[in-house]
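hey so i finally got around to running both of the ones u sent me last week. sorry it took forever, my laptop kept dying halfway thru and i had to restart like 3 times lol. anyway pasting them below in the order u listed, first the sequence line then the structure token line for each. didnt double check formatting much so if smth looks off just lmk and ill redo it

first one:
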Amino acid sequence: MIKIAPTSALFAITFAFLVVLPLSASADEGAPINPDEEPPTHSFDRLGIEEPEGSARASLATGQGLHGAILGLQTCVLLECSGPRPFYGLPTLGASAGLGLSLLATHERGITPGYAAAINSGTVWGAWIVGAGAYIADVESGRSALGSVMIGQLAGTGAGIALGRSLRVTSGDVLFVNSGALWAIGYYLAIMEGVADRYLSGRQGMVEALAVTTAGGLAGAALASEFPMTRGRLAIINASGMLGALAGGGIPVMIAGEDTNSRVLAASAIGGATIGLGLGTHFTRQWDDDTFESASPSLSIAPTPEVDGFQATISGRW
């Protein structure tokens, strides 16, 4: 029979990584966020020249507006607000502050997509690392734990601003880091809970989850420095991996139905994801080339002057 792992904080965290991080990585590299400074109007990307974009500015404003709303709600919980007015008022005030400050800081020179992605992702990473650390440290007070998460969010946002500027990260770099963390925790959960039948729980489970995601993110950063890719190519590779996991897991289910062994299902999904990632990487190897040569065949027809008729030629790349 197929066994479904019980719902836990780890699954909620994994889902948050799957949804929040890819959406926040909507961009490509570091640009000024302080209009009083005088950096260049564009920055050099390993894959081309990157200009500040309106979509990157919108991404930053959206992400930090949401961050501000969450901070407002967290503040209300810390202050033990009573009644509906503060529960609506503080998140609204926080969202307005996050949105307004993001737009104000970028209104003159804008921001490149990677810089916006680094800031938004830094917010999520800070909340995850400090929140997981508070759980591991067994912080007994709920208010202390919540305060730690808030500090982590703000510290992560600041780290994203600093790293995005100093390292001139691209959107591909940010997505590489986030994807590394996602695939690392996905593989680890599939192996431990699906194949080894050992469910992660408690402080030990959180230690393992934090270590795996951090290692995956660092591995993604190392790969991004050696094999830079655009956001588009990485998105295709990630989609290929997810499709491979679905197809791989679907094969034993289609064969055995409800009698599918959970370990076989997990192992098949792992193999399918690995094949999908490999195929996605291979078939997009020319995705980031400066010039694109069509692989479609071309047909040319010309008359033959010696005899009545014509000659046809088919050419192309195979």
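and the second one:
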Amino acid sequence: MYSVTDIGTLGGITSSASDINDSGQVVGTASTTNRGDNRAFLWDSINGIRNLDTSGIDTSSANSINNNGQVVGVYSPGVGINRSAFIWDSVNGLQNLGTLPGDNSSTANAINNKGQVVGRSENNSRIQPFLWDSASGLQNLGLLNEYNNSGAQAINNNGQVVGFASNDRSVRAVLWDGNTRPQNLGSFGTFLSQANSINDNGQVVGVSSVDNNGSRAFLWDSAKGLQQLASLDGYPNSYASDINNNGQIVGYTFSDFRALLWENGTVTDLNTLIDPNSGWKLGSASAINNKGQIVGSGIFNSQPLVRAFLLTPVSQIPKSVPEPTYGLGSLFCTLGSMYILKRLHKSAKVKS
């Protein structure tokens, strides 16, 4: 069973949690006004939610946090101005990571405990995957053969990177492993797959379409290759967002949105693991740390707007601590395999 904690907002009415580190610090995006202006946030159990030091920025999103408290994401100085990848910490504040040569916008998607950052750099005609570190700056990870666009979604503490490669015909889950060329992880015989997370054991999770109308969450490893994860009864379409070093996987169903946990080969609706009288509907799970804490998105008491939540295994909560408050979940992830493909052409983290 899990307790549910409301992450809150930055004065607005919605929030979305993207990642959680092993100290229980949570990052994501929250609205600052009822108009929906969004800013990157950092939350912890002592200080609550706070706006990252992003003064002069119109919109921002925090996508990943490592165990050193370093945060990466994306910001825009104003409407119509190109996006910029950033890294933030409490000492140095926000740093613009720039772009690869010839590009005009970038997004940082993940950071590992060594401070290595991965993401995407792009212009109006291409998307390129990058790796950044403080010594070498931005480096192009390289493209999969016959694919002209690519983005890096996650990096583990061994420097292995996963993401996607795309062309006009298909999208493929990709692994960059050291100095080797990008590896196509395949799909379930269809045009689309994307890798979203990789743990320190080299296990990869993501999503692959299975036909024109369906998608399935997958687990990949070097021994068994691509494996379809179990589906929740009555909800065949699924998406895997993250995997921790214990092999626990989180994600969601596409239909009727239900946050999912895969563990020991079994899939569980996380709504069945919280107080049934809480008023919550947990719609998606975005990340899980190595202590089993989960962040995700949901709605409370049938309200139309959503807020970020944190799930904590009840066994981790000292009995002397009052019950956590129940709150609202975060914005749902991109839905449907066709919509994912569209976003990839237009436009998940690390465990200790």
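quick thing i noticed on the 2nd:
DSSP finds one helix and 28 strands in the chain.
anyway thats it, ttyl
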